[in-house]
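Lab notebook, bench 4. We co-purified these components, and the gel suggests they stay together. Before we commit to crystallization screens, I want a quick structural picture of the whole thing.
Request: model the full complex, all chains together.
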Amino acid sequence: MSEKRFSTEQAVVVVIGSGAGGGVLANALAQRGIDVVCLEAGRRLAMSEIINDEATMFGKFTWLDPRESSGQTIPGFPAWTCKTVGGTTLHWTASCPRMQAHEFKARSTYGPIADTTLEDWPLEFDDIAPYYSAAEQLMGVTGTHGIERLPGNNNYKVLEAGARKVGYRQIDTNNVAINPVPRDGRGACLQTGFCTSGCVVQAKWSTLYTEIPKAEQTGHFELRPECMVTRIAHDDAGRVNAVQYLDASGELREQKARFICVAGNAIETARLLLNSSSDRFPSGLANSSDQVGRNYMRHMIAGVVGRMPGEVNIHRGAHQAGIIKDERGYDPSRGFVGGILMLTVPFAPEIFAKFLQPTGWGPEYADLLAHYNHLAAMLIHGEDLPQASNRITLHAQTTDAYGLPIPVVHYEEHPNTARLRDYALTRGRSVYEALGAEDIYDMVNVFPATHNMGTARMGSDRNTSVCNRWGQTHDIDNLFVSDGSLFTSAGCENPTLTIVALALRQAEHIADRVKRGEL
Amino acid sequence: MTADGGGPPFPLSEADQLPAERREFLKLLGFAATGSAAFVLRPISLGAAESNDWDLGFVDAELGLILASVARLLFPHPELKDSVYFQVVQDIDSDMARRPALGGLLRDSATALAEQVGGDWLAASVPEQISAIESIEGSEAFFYLRNRTIESLYRNTEVWRLVGYEGSSIEHGGYINRGFDDIDWLDP
Ligand SMILES: Cc1cc2nc3c(=O)[nH]c(=O)nc-3n(C[C@H](O)[C@H](O)[C@H](O)COP(=O)(O)OP(=O)(O)OC[C@H]3O[C@@H](n4cnc5c(N)ncnc54)[C@H](O)[C@@H]3O)c2cc1C
Ligand code: SF4
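Here is the predicted assembly.
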């Protein structure tokens, strides 16, 4: 670890958040010789603190500061993100499919859909393709660039066998940012089955032990953990010039900045922009369009669980190394727009007990749980559509321990999403039915949002979007957004590969402009 | 953080283990020694050997027995010893140390449950007890008891062994050579 320390008076690049977006961007800038300070609200865990225990790890790295749920969100816990160095890449399951070309043109492909704010992205697949490629190499994504795929575990074998019986053909162990063999100084996957608890052998890519230490080695980077940014400040010309933050001891500090990149995960990014309102920007920074916080998307996420005729031992092996892609395309004959992915997923006994039947109890239910080792499960992801009314706002009264208004997370399902979900559940169930499942359970409306998108979206029209095609805010020249907030539409794929690709693209753009003296 | 209303109802809260002022569980044993009818009744039977280690500060003897009995009725695994269900009571007791209102809530619902079965919960038949629990489904106390029982029971390694969850695997080198792909009942 380098001991590089920047003065708070030195105007550096400030990156807020050290997760997928922030970690990658900060390192990419530091590698180009640009001085970066990364402010991260969470603690830096030592590798020795990462253990194979879900409940303990949940307590160590989850974002537990209060958020208010509104609409169809999980009461008290609308979203599931992390507050730790590495952000939610400690928790994630590393599934890394690329978005499909037509998904970048969602509005032209799907046509007008009532009660949505659907638009095309201000960039095309071909624009992002080279950065997808760079992101896959950076993260070591299986099934790309000659990196072999992971072997399938039992839960995958069940998924694959059932999928073949119902006629699906595009089934494999997924593109995952998990080392099948040692690579990049990190170990190979041992199929421990604890991906969401942080990977002890570092086979799973996380910025905690990749981008952050690499950035530190450049001498152009300083990480400040346990520093919660409370406000972004600007000068008389309306350009941002500093961030205020509370450090580990609770002291308020200010860091001067030449430009600022916000990557706090879509909810916190929107909240920080809104919380930074001033006389000049009374409705929040970069919010002249009134779009900050709006168009919040999170994917339709549902589980299907089969009680199978034999043992599965679902807990063994990498979580999401298994996918059915046959339903991911655009096919309005199914009665909805948007694609669907079906991925393997394991749960520990506690989670099944809570959610297989959210109010279940009694002898039959206990018997089902006693057959834990017979359960197979998949997680279904479907595209959801942007709606102006699905949004992050600031709570009028309640503040958190930092004294900041807490975010209110409002989400209502669009009718298209409901149709997609019903179809997806029927198809998912058929996979386990085909193998003679004794019982099948849907897990619907039990998961907090894990994919948070759209709250500072990119667009070519500054009246309906917050950022341009580089993630630079329309309103403020030296303020950037560098996370899933940028997504114009959601696609059906897990978002992180796209977040990383956009961050790499943004870094290149910023570095070019710095070189030209524009920033 | 746990089911006691402080935090997310969602997942994997770390069971709180705040230090609490505790009395000896002897009181519960003393209750046993009075020769109460409780101990001849199913599904919970309290053997002194099993209860020796328990240490409660807030839950009294009678409530402790009722809560353990409710925990077993909610998630009845015949193979499990009563001690596993008494651990649930122990965890509830820890919650009470931090949440004063919880005691009242649980005592009230224990009273309500007992009334449903004619006054003496532990003397009632299992079907009577089950329909009494059904009558409190949807209540705050039921939500708490279900969630807390799950968080205690299904984090207990004895229960893991019973259901076939193998817990931490890194010390055994993961499952790469220990059956991550050993399924044998699928058609070739
Ligand atoms: C259980 C789970 C499984 C997942 N699996 C996958 C998967 O398989 N594939 C996939 O693509 N995605 C997955 N995701 C989603 C993935 O983790 C996120 O898309 C990704 O981490 C988002 O990157 P980010 O940089 O936007 O935010 P994060 O990685 O969440 O990082 C944001 C960081 O910013 C910090 N921060 C926020 N506000 C402030 C502030 N004001 N001051 C200072 N710091 C701040 C936070 O503490 C956090 O560390 C999963 C998520 C979960 C919860
Ligand atoms: S299954 Fe593989 S990737 Fe997941 S935590 Fe274990 S070793 Fe890491």
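Residues 48-163 of chain B form one domain. Worth comparing against the SEC data before the next meeting. The longest helix of chain B spans residues 82-98.
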